[in-house]
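Q: Please design a sequence for this.
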């Protein structure tokens, strides 16, 4: 039988592995490459060098050589519509048409698709458009066109809407809608640290991309499931793999294209169960059916899903319309079935009729990359070890290198990958490591990938997921508190009195005020009396100095809080207690220190729209409002502070003070009675519940789960805990 003529597009290590698998499966290989890959060049019947997205050149090369099937490696030719052009020329393709490649090229599209078809594993998300701000009719279906401004994604929104959504999420991820070479995703806590920074980034995205996707930040371990689908209900799921994005040992440094990866002999990963992998497979199969229904065309090619195992199950991060690089190198060498048969069956819609087998082996792939990669790579000559001369046992795949004057030279990207295949991950690691360590030149690789220690770290991480984190973990010294105040400070005095009785539990380390006027604020006096460090930075002055009279300007507020944060750091503060502090506190403080407050009302009470009725209401105003509202009693509430006024999670609710109001009051009489009740509430409510809250915090009794729900002594208290 004649060998099948196959076109392979792409020139990286992934394509080198594809080329090897195709040749092993009986192909006659025609390679269209952007860079001349020395490994592919050696085994191809013929090759051409051209731009990755030059569909005309690639199709001509394919036609001139009468190839039967094409396998497209990278995303750029898919996004350029190479599969469409090859199909038009009568060449069947493993790789989706441009419209279908949206699965990778538009994160918004994929999120909308999973939502519309009710597919599980989708985090909370919203897609925000750059144009037509204010339009409210959501449509869905086609890739938005950034140039024409006729984006069809919705709901469209103002930055205000984005801000509200970011605040609702608390922890978020912001992604441009479009191809960004893996560099566009910014994660809260890693690349962005506040709503303001996230908004700036959204704004930047909306200038250059059709849309920004904002979604819930998930916590867990990532894995890759690469699946071939024939668009006809046939699926071939490859063994799952875990990649390592960070540049350096111990998962630190910049994100890269991937420094290495591993897979296990049972086709699971040490932190995954077969149910986990089945859940990911199910998601992929449902997405394949959904995209066919949505776009009316069959998807033929790779669906490489990036998944995460979280405390609440398997979640989908993204799809790529191609094999992973390095993940392809883990799975292709394990194929026992001819890869040519697999490609044919995929392209012809006949995958379900093909029995595919893999070797039960573990694999570890390690990439050797130029020194300085990815930020500032140095190029130069390298000497790559070989099976013949150096007796290495690893498979060798060339990536972005150049062969000249008989030598191999690095470029600015990953250079060469080594894959160990063995019965266990550890044995496979040793094989890959031995080869990677033998490369000579200005290069490095991650020695830790695939080691028992690193794999075990993943396992431990998964075990920790969903466990409660204490809001404060007691040490063998008192919890260190900073009190922030703007007024008389009666509550600070109560806390300091309480401290005297509980000296081993907590200590007010510093008092800070935003008010210079000592007729209004007693901060200095109290600090002197109790020998506590004292700081003052007048907020009105601060705004004035910056030529701004509007205290709502949160950028200035952030700068102010960043300066306050330096004091907190200096005093090694554990928690901030607001004690009649009349300013909004922003991320430099609340993002880094547990910040609590007491509010002179029952914050559990909601209005008809479900909003906290007493949020933003002060002192006697709260009592007046309670009287008007017909409340029978009043209480004080402690809560965690977030950027929105009185909106944070509740901690304790004080005992009730009965409102004995026999008749209706107005004017001066109402003022008087409100003041009386406010005083009573202070004595019975605020002054008791706040020190009590601080005591429980210091004892480590409050905790929160990943979603921020608060627990007291291990019991969920979403609406705070009433004290008895
Ligand atoms: P993506 O291109 O969507 O896979 O995102 C790139 C990387 O960003 C992923 O590999 C994750 O590490 C991270 N990431 C993406 N989405 C989320 C999310 N919702 N929660 C946490 N991390 C994420
Ligand atoms: N392994 C990362 C990628 O192929 O995108």
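A: Design:
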């Amino acid at each position: 039988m004649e060998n099948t003529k196959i076109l392979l597009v792409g020139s990286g290590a992934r394509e080198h592995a594809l080329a090897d698998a195709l040749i092993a499966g009986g192909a006659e290989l025609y390679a269209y490459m952007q860079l001349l890959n020395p490994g592919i060049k050696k085994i191809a019947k013929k090759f051409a060098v051209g731009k990755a997205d030059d569909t005309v050149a690639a199709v001509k090369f394919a036609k001139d050589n009468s190839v039967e099937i094409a396998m497209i490696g990278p995303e750029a030719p898919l996004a350029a519509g190479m599969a469409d052009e090859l199909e038009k020329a009568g060449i069947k393709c493993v790789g989706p048409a441009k419209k279908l490649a949206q699965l990778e090229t538009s994160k918004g599209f994929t999120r909308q698709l999973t939502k519309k078809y009710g597919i599980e594993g989708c985090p909370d998300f919203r897609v925000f458009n750059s144009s037509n701000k204010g339009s409210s009719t959501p449509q869905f279906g086609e890739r938005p066109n950034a140039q024409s401004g006729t984006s069809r994604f919705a709901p469209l929104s103002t930055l205000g809407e984005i801000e509200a959504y970011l605040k609702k999420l608390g922890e978020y991820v912001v992604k441009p809608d479009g191809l960004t070479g893996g560099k566009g995703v910014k994660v809260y806590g890693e690349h962005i640290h506040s709503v303001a920074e996230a908004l700036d980034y959204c704004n930047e995205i909306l200038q250059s991309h059709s849309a920004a996707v904002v979604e819930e930040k998930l916590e867990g371990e990532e894995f890759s499931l690469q699946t071939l689908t024939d668009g006809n209900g046939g699926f071939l799921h490859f063994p799952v793999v875990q990649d390592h994005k960070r540049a350096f040992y111990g998962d630190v440094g910049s994100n890269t294209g991937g420094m290495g990866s591993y897979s296990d002999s049972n086709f699971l990963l040490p932190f995954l169960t077969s149910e986990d992998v089945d859940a990911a497979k199910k998601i992929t199969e449902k997405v394949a059916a959904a995209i066919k229904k949505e776009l009316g065309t069959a998807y033929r090619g790779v669906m490489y899903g990036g998944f995460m195992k979280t405390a609440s199950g398997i979640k989908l991060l993204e799809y790529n319309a191609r094999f992973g690089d390095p993940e392809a190198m883990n799975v292709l060498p394990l194929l026992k079935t001819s890869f040519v048969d697999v490609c044919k069956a995929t392209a012809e819609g006949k995958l379900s009729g093909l029995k595919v087998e893999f070797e039960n082996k573990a694999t570890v792939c390690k990439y050797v990359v130029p020194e300085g990669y990815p930020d500032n790579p140095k190029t130069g000559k390298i000497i790559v070890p070989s099976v013949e001369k150096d007796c290495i046992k690893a498979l060798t795949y060339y990536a972005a290198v150049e062969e000249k004057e008989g030598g191999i030279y690095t470029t600015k990207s990953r250079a060469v990958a080594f894959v160990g295949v063995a019965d266990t991950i550890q044995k496979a690691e040793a094989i890959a490591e031995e080869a990677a360590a033998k490369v000579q030149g200005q290069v490095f690789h991650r020695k830790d990938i695939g080691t028992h220690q690193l794999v075990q770290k993943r396992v431990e991480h998964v075990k920790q997921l969903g466990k409660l984190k204490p809001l404060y973990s007691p040490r063998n010294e008192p919890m260190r508190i900073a009190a922030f105040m703007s007024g008389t400070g009666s509550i600070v005095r109560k806390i300091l009195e309480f401290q005297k009785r509980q000296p081993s539990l907590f200590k007010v380390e510093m008092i800070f005020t935003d008010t210079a006027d000592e007729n209004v604020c007693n901060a200095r006096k109290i600090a002197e009396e109790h020998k506590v460090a004292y700081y003052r930075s007048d907020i009105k002055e601060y705004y004035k100095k910056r030529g701004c009279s509007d205290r709502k300007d949160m950028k200035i507020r952030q700068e102010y809080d960043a300066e306050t944060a330096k004091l907190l750091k200096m005093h090694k503060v554990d928690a901030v207690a607001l004690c009649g502090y009349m300013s909004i506190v922003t991320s430099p403080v609340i993002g880094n220190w547990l910040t609590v407050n007491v509010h002179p009302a029952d914050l559990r009470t909601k209005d008809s729209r479900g909003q906290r009725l007493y949020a933003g209401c002060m002192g006697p105003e709260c009592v007046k409002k309670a009287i008007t509202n017909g409340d029978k009693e009043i209480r004080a509430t402690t809560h965690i502070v977030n950027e929105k006024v009185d909106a944070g999670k509740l901690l304790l609710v004080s005992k009730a003070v009965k409102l004995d109001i026999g008749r209706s009051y107005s004017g001066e009489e109402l003022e008087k009675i409100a003041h009386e009740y406010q005083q009573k509430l202070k004595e019975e409510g605020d002054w008791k519940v706040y020190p009590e809250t601080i005591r429980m915090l210091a004892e480590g009794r409050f905790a929160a789960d990943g979603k921020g729900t608060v627990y007291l002594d291990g019991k969920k208290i979403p609406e705070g805990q009433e004290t008895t």
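Q: Thanks. Anything notable?
A: DSSP finds 22 helices and 38 strands in the chain. The mean pLDDT is 92.
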